[in-house]
Amino acid sequence: MAILNRPSALNALNTNMGAKLNKLFKAWENDPNIGFVSMKGSGRAFCAGGDIVSLYHFMNQGKLEECKDFFRTLYSFIYLLGTHLKPHVAILNGVTMGGGAGVSIPGTFRVACGKTVFATPETLIGFHPDAGASFYLSHLPGHLGEFLALTGAKLNGAEMMACGLATHYSVSEKLPLIEEELGKLVTDDPSVIEACLEKYSDLVYPDKNSVIHRIDIVDKCFGLDTVEEIIDSLESEASLINDPWCGSTLRLLKEASPLSLKVSLRSIREGRFQTFDECLVREYRMSLQGVSRLISGDFYEVSNFQILNKHV
């Protein structure tokens, strides 16, 4: 089992972690004694995403090559995970955001629990949903992917199950039992691993306030062509129906970087017609533009503000 072990940083991924994961997974893929691979995070998070503190310091010092290495290393691992010849189980035991989703969702099985919190909050920090997000978000039901990409809204474990981001759900208390059972398995057969996970799975439904129950409104608004049309449509819906969800969604959109909203919408729409590797290549180029500050300094400025105010 691979354990992401930076609990004080919610297991945020840096270049060294990405390099170690690449090395381990390549070795495990070629090891006939290993049938499958599992991954979890230490502490209260699976993984909070990429380490934007270290990325900010690279940008601040003008170290563009280090920025390139950061993204190249992590995206290479995400591609390796998504094409790995052996089954993969991610135990999403807490915060699973941004790059944390990137190092779990491309794998075979994703086990959510009552403590799982998923989000792609990049537009709120002047960036774009990356680490493969334009691929997996664009393949969610309807236009849920656009909603998640633009708003950075959070999903819980039940919602992840409902939309397909998670393959299994277990109450948090059962996770040690799952880990113990997986540790005893000697197999490379996905159906055997799935049977093990099913043994500890629980039936769960999103609550009445969930976005899952508002897919009609999501499709009506987030299926439109432009960010401006999406916002206008939500404002129109808010005036017609008494649903606090419309207001909270509008607030999230208005808190985001305007440029990031436009870039992210385009990214999801392109991802719908691209392969996994094509999405990663495009996201890599987009990410380098984001840290270069040639087009916009939003990511650098928001990162600077959050670090100074200790929000990350």
Which CATH class is shown?
Alpha Beta
Q: N-to-C terminal Cα separation, in Å?
A: 27 Å
Structural class: alpha/beta
Helix-strand pattern: EHEEHHEEHEEHHEHEHHHHHHHH
Number of domains: 1
pLDDT averaged over residues:
92
**Count of β-strands:** 9
- Helix count, DSSP H or I runs of 4 or more residues: 15
Overall spatial form: globular
Strand order of the largest sheet: 1-2-4-6-9
List low-pLDDT spans: none
Q: Provide the CATH superfamily.
A: 2-enoyl-CoA Hydratase, Chain A, domain 1
Within the CATH hierarchy, at the fold level, what is the topology?
A: 2-enoyl-CoA Hydratase, Chain A, domain 1
Q: Name the beta content range.
A: 5-15%
Catalytic activity: 3-hydroxy-2-methylpropanoyl-CoA + H2O = 3-hydroxy-2-methylpropanoate + CoA + H(+)
Function: Hydrolyzes 3-hydroxyisobutyryl-CoA (HIBYL-CoA), a saline catabolite. Has high activity toward isobutyryl-CoA. Could be an isobutyryl-CoA dehydrogenase that functions in valine catabolism.
Organism: Citrus sinensis (Sweet orange)
Pathway: Amino-acid degradation; L-valine degradation
Walk me through the topology.
Elements: E1 2-4, H1 15-29, E2 37-41, E3 45-47, H2 52-60, H3 64-82, E4 88-92, E5 95-97, H4 99-102, E6 109-112, E7 117-119, H5 133-136, H6 144-151, E8 155-156, H7 157-163, E9 168-169, H8 175-184, H9 190-199, H10 215-222, H11 227-240, H12 244-255, H13 258-271, H14 276-292, H15 298-308
Parallel strand pairs: 1-2, 2-4, 3-5, 4-6, 5-7, 6-9
Antiparallel strand pairs: 7-8
Helix pairs in contact: 1-3, 2-15, 3-14, 6-13, 10-11, 11-12
